[in-house]
Protein backbone atom coordinates (compact mmCIF):
# COMPACT_ATOMS: atom_id res chain seq x y z
CA UNK A 1 0.00 0.00 0.00
CA UNK A 2 1.15 3.55 -0.77
CA UNK A 3 0.43 5.97 2.05
CA UNK A 4 0.31 9.70 1.32
CA UNK A 5 0.03 12.46 3.91
CA UNK A 6 -0.57 16.12 3.03
CA UNK A 7 0.60 18.60 5.65
CA UNK A 8 -0.10 22.29 6.33
CA UNK A 9 -0.34 24.39 9.48
CA UNK A 10 -3.96 24.16 10.61
CA UNK A 11 -5.23 21.14 8.60
CA UNK A 12 -8.41 23.08 7.81
CA UNK A 13 -7.55 24.83 4.50
CA UNK A 14 -4.72 23.58 2.28
CA UNK A 15 -3.95 19.99 3.30
CA UNK A 16 -7.60 18.82 3.53
CA UNK A 17 -8.17 20.39 0.11
CA UNK A 18 -5.17 18.46 -1.26
CA UNK A 19 -6.48 15.26 0.35
CA UNK A 20 -9.96 15.76 -1.15
CA UNK A 21 -8.67 16.73 -4.60
CA UNK A 22 -6.36 13.70 -4.88
CA UNK A 23 -9.18 11.41 -3.69
CA UNK A 24 -11.48 12.97 -6.30
CA UNK A 25 -8.95 12.55 -9.13
CA UNK A 26 -8.28 8.92 -8.17
CA UNK A 27 -12.04 8.33 -8.09
CA UNK A 28 -12.29 9.70 -11.63
CA UNK A 29 -9.79 6.98 -12.59
CA UNK A 30 -11.84 4.29 -10.83
CA UNK A 31 -9.45 4.07 -7.86
CA UNK A 32 -10.58 4.23 -4.25
CA UNK A 33 -8.38 5.00 -1.27
CA UNK A 34 -8.70 3.55 2.21
CA UNK A 35 -7.29 1.04 4.69
CA UNK A 36 -8.40 -1.88 2.51
CA UNK A 37 -7.23 -0.38 -0.80
CA UNK A 38 -3.83 -0.03 -2.53
CA UNK A 39 -3.59 3.62 -1.64
CA UNK A 40 -4.28 5.55 1.55
CA UNK A 41 -4.56 9.35 1.67
CA UNK A 42 -4.69 11.54 4.77
CA UNK A 43 -3.83 15.06 5.91
CA UNK A 44 -2.57 16.65 9.11
CA UNK A 45 -1.52 20.02 10.54
CA UNK A 46 1.70 20.89 12.31
CA UNK A 47 -0.37 23.10 14.69
CA UNK A 48 -2.95 22.01 17.25
CA UNK A 49 -5.35 24.96 16.88
CA UNK A 50 -8.15 23.22 14.99
CA UNK A 51 -8.03 19.55 16.07
CA UNK A 52 -11.35 17.81 15.38
CA UNK A 53 -12.76 20.62 13.20
CA UNK A 54 -14.20 20.25 9.72
CA UNK A 55 -12.34 22.14 6.97
CA UNK A 56 -12.75 25.93 6.79
CA UNK A 57 -16.04 26.95 5.20
CA UNK A 58 -14.21 28.88 2.46
CA UNK A 59 -12.18 25.77 1.54
CA UNK A 60 -15.31 23.62 1.52
CA UNK A 61 -17.21 26.08 -0.66
CA UNK A 62 -14.33 26.49 -3.11
CA UNK A 63 -13.80 22.73 -3.41
CA UNK A 64 -17.52 22.18 -3.89
CA UNK A 65 -17.46 24.49 -6.95
CA UNK A 66 -15.15 21.94 -8.57
CA UNK A 67 -17.12 18.90 -7.40
CA UNK A 68 -14.81 18.04 -4.49
CA UNK A 69 -16.41 17.25 -1.14
CA UNK A 70 -14.36 17.92 2.03
CA UNK A 71 -17.18 17.41 4.55
CA UNK A 72 -15.93 14.09 5.97
CA UNK A 73 -12.44 15.35 6.78
CA UNK A 74 -11.55 16.23 10.40
CA UNK A 75 -8.44 18.14 11.44
CA UNK A 76 -5.72 16.33 13.33
CA UNK A 77 -2.20 17.19 14.38
CA UNK A 78 0.86 15.66 12.75
CA UNK A 79 2.63 13.12 14.98
CA UNK A 80 6.15 11.69 15.04
CA UNK A 81 4.61 8.29 14.24
CA UNK A 82 3.24 9.68 10.93
CA UNK A 83 6.77 9.83 9.54
CA UNK A 84 7.12 6.08 10.00
CA UNK A 85 3.58 5.24 8.88
CA UNK A 86 3.45 7.24 5.61
CA UNK A 87 5.54 6.95 2.42
CA UNK A 88 5.04 10.47 1.06
CA UNK A 89 4.71 13.41 3.44
CA UNK A 90 3.96 16.46 1.32
CA UNK A 91 4.26 19.96 2.76
CA UNK A 92 2.40 23.00 1.48
CA UNK A 93 5.14 25.52 2.35
CA UNK A 94 8.65 25.90 3.77
CA UNK A 95 7.37 26.80 7.26
CA UNK A 96 5.61 23.42 7.31
CA UNK A 97 8.87 21.74 6.30
CA UNK A 98 10.73 23.41 9.16
CA UNK A 99 8.05 22.36 11.66
CA UNK A 100 8.03 18.81 10.26
CA UNK A 101 11.80 18.43 10.41
CA UNK A 102 11.73 19.44 14.08
CA UNK A 103 9.80 16.27 15.00
CA UNK A 104 10.79 13.87 12.18
CA UNK A 105 12.85 10.79 13.21
CA UNK A 106 16.34 11.12 11.67
CA UNK A 107 15.92 8.14 9.31
CA UNK A 108 12.62 9.41 7.81
CA UNK A 109 13.64 12.85 6.48
CA UNK A 110 13.72 11.58 2.89
CA UNK A 111 9.91 11.28 2.92
CA UNK A 112 9.40 15.04 3.38
CA UNK A 113 8.84 16.97 0.14
CA UNK A 114 7.30 20.22 -1.00
CA UNK A 115 4.02 19.23 -2.65
CA UNK A 116 4.43 21.76 -5.49
CA UNK A 117 7.60 19.98 -6.65
CA UNK A 118 5.22 17.59 -8.40
CA UNK A 119 3.36 20.35 -10.32
CA UNK A 120 4.36 20.42 -13.98
CA UNK A 121 2.73 23.61 -15.18
CA UNK A 122 3.56 26.02 -12.34
CA UNK A 123 7.08 27.23 -13.08
CA UNK A 124 8.50 29.17 -10.15
CA UNK A 125 5.70 28.21 -7.77
CA UNK A 126 7.19 26.19 -4.94
CA UNK A 127 4.65 26.76 -2.15
CA UNK A 128 0.89 26.78 -1.63
CA UNK A 129 0.40 30.05 0.31
CA UNK A 130 -1.52 30.13 3.60
CA UNK A 131 -4.97 31.57 2.71
CA UNK A 132 -6.40 31.67 6.24
CA UNK A 133 -6.26 35.39 7.00
CA UNK A 134 -6.86 36.60 3.44
CA UNK A 135 -9.97 36.95 1.28
CA UNK A 136 -11.98 34.36 -0.59
CA UNK A 137 -9.99 34.90 -3.80
CA UNK A 138 -6.97 33.40 -2.03
CA UNK A 139 -8.89 30.17 -1.71
CA UNK A 140 -9.47 29.97 -5.47
CA UNK A 141 -5.76 30.49 -6.01
CA UNK A 142 -4.93 27.80 -3.45
CA UNK A 143 -7.37 25.40 -5.11
CA UNK A 144 -5.79 26.04 -8.51
CA UNK A 145 -2.27 25.36 -7.18
CA UNK A 146 -3.43 22.21 -5.41
CA UNK A 147 -5.23 21.00 -8.53
CA UNK A 148 -2.09 21.48 -10.64
CA UNK A 149 0.13 19.90 -7.98
CA UNK A 150 -2.11 16.87 -7.81
CA UNK A 151 -2.24 16.51 -11.61
CA UNK A 152 1.54 16.13 -11.49
CA UNK A 153 1.49 13.93 -8.41
CA UNK A 154 -1.13 11.64 -9.97
CA UNK A 155 1.07 11.30 -13.06
CA UNK A 156 3.99 10.46 -10.78
CA UNK A 157 1.94 7.78 -9.02
CA UNK A 158 0.76 6.22 -12.30
CA UNK A 159 4.36 6.19 -13.59
CA UNK A 160 5.84 4.59 -10.47
CA UNK A 161 3.11 2.28 -9.22
CA UNK A 162 0.48 -0.11 -10.50
CA UNK A 163 -2.68 1.24 -8.98
P1 LIG B 1 -4.02 25.81 6.68
O1 LIG B 1 -4.51 27.31 7.04
O2 LIG B 1 -2.65 25.65 7.29
O3 LIG B 1 -4.00 25.78 5.21
O4 LIG B 1 -5.05 24.88 7.31
C1 LIG B 1 -4.49 27.80 8.34
C2 LIG B 1 -5.55 27.55 9.18
C3 LIG B 1 -5.56 28.07 10.46
C4 LIG B 1 -4.48 28.83 10.89
C5 LIG B 1 -3.41 29.08 10.05
C6 LIG B 1 -3.41 28.57 8.77
N1 LIG B 1 -4.50 29.38 12.20
O5 LIG B 1 -3.55 30.09 12.54
O6 LIG B 1 -5.45 29.15 12.97
UniProtKB/TrEMBL annotation:
Is the Ubl conjugation keyword given for this protein? no
Q: Carries keyword Hydrolase?
A: yes
- Give the molecular function GO annotations: protein tyrosine phosphatase activity
Print the keywords alphabetically.
Answer: Hydrolase, Protein phosphatase
Q: Pfam families given for it?
A: LMWPc
Which SUPFAM superfamilies would you find in this protein's record? Phosphotyrosine protein phosphatases I
Catalytic class of the enzyme: hydrolase
| Record EC number | 3.1.3.48
List each copy of the Phosphotyrosine protein phosphatase I domain by range: 2-156
Family, according to the entry, reads as follows: Belongs to the low molecular weight phosphotyrosine protein phosphatase family.
**Full protein name:** protein-tyrosine-phosphatase
What species was this sequence derived from?
A: hydrothermal vent metagenome
Amino acid sequence: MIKILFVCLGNICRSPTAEGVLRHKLGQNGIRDGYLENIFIDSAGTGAYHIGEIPDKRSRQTAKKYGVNLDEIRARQLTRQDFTDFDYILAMDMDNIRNMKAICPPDQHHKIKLFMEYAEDCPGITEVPDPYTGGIEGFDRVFDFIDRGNNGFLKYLFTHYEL
